[in-house]
């Protein structure tokens, strides 16, 4: 009887597991065109070191984040970015720094290269948020700080961008986030272009 019960239970569990459908994992990427970056004809700001973007632990993972309230976030198990948000932002800023032709060289390092400017970025938000009125938005927020070759801060700005999305579809979030990243990085490069390297070192 015990053997029969065990076999019956095993068959029942196998049937139940076979009926359970696990959602497929979907991966989304950010589209960014460096064509929007205004290019300089003279790389007169010398070299620059981009420090890897800093972020909270949950933004160092590739899973999409949904903010339900100022006190609660939900991390999706089945919708993810092609890489972690902090890595996405590091890559896109690095590409823009190369593309803008403002700098004679661009480094990515945890240490500021000798004689170079230093750019530190702290990612705070990279998420979908549900608003009190029932609408949904994509939010991107990061702080950028520029250091002179001696390590002294000479520029600081918080980029806080928000764009409404029509629904909770992850594809719409990816599209909106792509636009926010383009706008934020374009603004950052524009700010950096106003910094005179010669006035910094003199």
Written overview of the protein:
- The chain is of the alpha/beta class and 202 residues long.
- It has a single domain, classed as Rossmann fold (3-Layer(aba) Sandwich).
- 31% of the residues lie in helices and 34% in strands.
- The chain has helices at residues 2-19, 85-100, 170-193, 197-201; strands at 26-28, 47-50, 54-55, 63-69, 72-81, 105-108, 117-130, 136-147, 153-165.
- Strands 1, 2, 3, 4, 5, 6, 7, 8 and 9 form a 9-stranded mixed β-sheet that branches.
- α2 (85-100) packs across α3.
- The longest helix is centred in the C-terminal third of the chain and has 24 residues, at 170-193.
- The radius of gyration is 23 Å and the shape is elongated.
- 29% of the residues are buried.
- The model has no long low-confidence stretch (mean pLDDT 85).
Query: At CATH's second level, what is the architecture?
Result: 3-Layer(aba) Sandwich
CATH class: Alpha Beta
Number of H- or I-type helical stretches: 4
- How many beta-strand elements? 9
Specify Rg, calculated over alpha carbons. Answer: 23 Å
- The overall number of domains is 1
Indicate the percent of residues in helices.
25-40%
Are there runs of 5+ residues with pLDDT below 50, and where?
none
What is the 3D shape?
A: elongated
Distance between the termini: 92 Å
Q: What's the quaternary structure here?
A: single chain
Fourth-level CATH superfamily: ABC-type transport auxiliary lipoprotein component
**Proportion of beta-strand residues:** 25-35%
Mean pLDDT: 85
CATH topology (fold) name: Rossmann fold
**SSE-based structural type:** alpha/beta
How do the SSEs run, as a string of H and E? HEEEEEHEEEEHH
Please describe the biggest sheet, giving its number of strands, its sense, and whether it closes into a barrel: 9 strands, mixed
């Amino acid at each position: 009887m015990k053997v029969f019960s065990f076999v019956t239970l095993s068959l029942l569990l196998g049937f139940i597991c076979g009926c359970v459908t696990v959602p497929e994992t979907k991966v989304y990427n950010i589209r960014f065109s460096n064509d929007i970056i205004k290019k300089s004809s003279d790389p007169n700001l010398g070299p620059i070191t981009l420090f890897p973007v800093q972020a909270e632990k949950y933004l160092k993972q590739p899973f999409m984040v949904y903010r339900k309230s100022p006190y609660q976030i939900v991390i999706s198990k089945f919708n993810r970015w092609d890489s972690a948000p902090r890595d996405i932002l590091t890559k896109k800023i690095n590409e823009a720094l190369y593309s803008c032709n403002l700098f004679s060289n661009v480094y990515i390092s945890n240490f500021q290269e000798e004689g170079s400017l230093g750019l530190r970025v702290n990612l705070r938000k990279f998420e979908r948020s549900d608003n009190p009125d029932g609408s949904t938005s994509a939010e991107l927020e990061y702080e950028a700080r520029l250091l002179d070759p001696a390590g002294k801060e000479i520029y600081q700005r918080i980029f806080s961008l928000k764009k409404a999305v029509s629904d909770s579809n992850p594809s719409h979030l990816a599209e909106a986030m792509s636009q926010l990243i383009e706008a934020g990085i374009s603004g950052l490069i524009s700010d950096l272009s106003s910094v005179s390297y010669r006035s910094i070192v003199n």
